[in-house]
Amino acid sequence: MREELTFNLRGDYGASQREDMTVDFKWESFTPENHEMWRFLFGRIMPELKHRACKEYLDGIEALDFAGENGIPNYDRISDKLEKRTGWRLVTVPGLLPPEIFFAHLANRRFPVTTFIRTPEEIDYLQEPDIFHDMFGHVPMIAHPVFADYFHAFGEGGMKALKHGYLPYLETLYWFTIEFGLINTPEGRRIYGSGITSSMGESKFCLSPEATHIAYDIKRIMRQQYRIDVFQAQYFVIDSFEQLLESTAPDFIPYYKEVSAQEKVAVGDTLPSDTVLQLGVKAA
Ligand code: PHE
Ligand code: FE
Known about the structure:
By secondary structure, this protein is of the alpha/beta class. Helices cover 44% and strands 10% of the residues. It has helices at residues 32-49, 55-63, 66-69, 75-86, 99-107, 131-142, 145-163, 167-179, 194-197, 200-205, 218-222, 241-247, 253-260; strands spanning 89-92, 110-113, 182-185, 188-191, 212-215, 234-238, 276-277. The longest helix is centred in the middle third of the chain and has 19 residues, at 145-163. The structure holds phenylalanine (PHE) and fe (iii) ion. Residues 153-154, 157, 160, 248-252 line the site of phenylalanine.
């Protein structure tokens, strides 16, 4: 998600003169060091994700042939493959985007990808999404038809929430599904959130007994507070991507009204009404 941050931004925000904030970018301008960084991150995390990420995510990695790219994937090649599968394309942007621009891209099945990759000093944490987060974390999921439709609907939902002054609630839902979502599968609980798949530390932590897992519930999620600079104190677990798509189809305005009259839930807290899930226990 594109949070409003004011310190040490890495992106070149003066680079775009366009209203949609896109920039012309040549993949050829990546340096050998940039590609080496990708190979390092990719090679380090793939073995961890083989048994932790959901099948849909791993299928996306395979369908787009990230391994065969052997470095930062070529944007045009990935974009063409993505378009054939789900009708999405990639566009290049300096980094974080204002919500109205970001959601408008999603609503048009365009996924904005940054043009910078972390340096060796920033290997495990940085404040803005870099290529490894955007491309490795998000793009494989967008190759899945149902998730791709969810993401598209989210763009339209974002514009609507913004117009009615309820954006923070939808941003929270974005955070706990697209960025930090977990899913129940026949093989056990798995990761689909891009904030987790692109993080070496969190991909292990989120499936450890220290993590709290709560059954997916939209209005409950909208009340949850969260931190963006540490591992999440709770994760919300869906049962399928169809559930995600169907549950977000209704008009959210009544949800927003209801939730805005309720108390927020502090980081790390659970409610008596929560369905707290045990690790390794499959959904009924
Ligand atoms: N259906 C929601 C609304 O009417 C929009 C939405 C769609 C939100 C998909 C999230 C995901 O506001
Ligand atoms: Fe993200």
